[in-house]
Amino acid sequence: MNHPFRSPRPPAEADRLREVFTEAAYDVTPSAVPLAAIEREGRRRRRRRGSAVLGAACGVLVVLLAVVVLRDGAAAGPGEWVKPPAASAGTPSPSPSVPAGRVRVVTPGERVQVAPGIKIWLTEDGKHWLEPGAPGAQFRSVSDGNLDMSRPGVSLQESGQDGSYFLSGIFHGRGEPARVEVETTAGEGNGTALTLAGRPGWGVWYLRTKVPDSVTSVSGVTGVTKRVTVYDSAGGVIANQEFAP
User: How far apart are CA 153 and CA 142, in angstroms?
Assistant: First the structure.
């Protein structure tokens, strides 16, 4: 079947259509732009981005803290907190140039087992000790005038049994003790100090040591101790005393 031929629209009709569409467009009033809604949406998106950035920063901080804890706490297991070791109570921290000593702060009358069968306790008036073979407790006063407490000094008591010697005495001077160095005929050793709280200005030192058989006792005096020096935490000397071996 043959379709009838349709001729194109006359130019005048096309121009008329354009005029009609243009007039219709002028009659259309565009709606107002929702600026307030756009601003609210912008603020909401900025807050969301800020929360995401803050959350990421907190996550990084937690990771860094975990790394620090693991470094400071050595080998920690999963979920395990390892506390760094703390200095023992009553033990001052000496300077790096001074080897660590042993100092124990005791309460008045507190008996300390310092060697097998030997106990020492301190009161405000001096040193008390009990040892095997003695008829009872012995005492050395810091207030009866036998010790010159106006200047630094060190006293000495020695006792020996089966080649083992127990050396002890009272030290007095300014400062808090941190280390006791004892030089004997068998060599040098680090003693232990006992002191009362409150900086009384004195304390007790002691050391147990082995001495060669060549060292003999004369008239009950063993002659084992050669020198006793008490240091503070800065390496300064609180008291020093030489003894004739």
Answer: 12
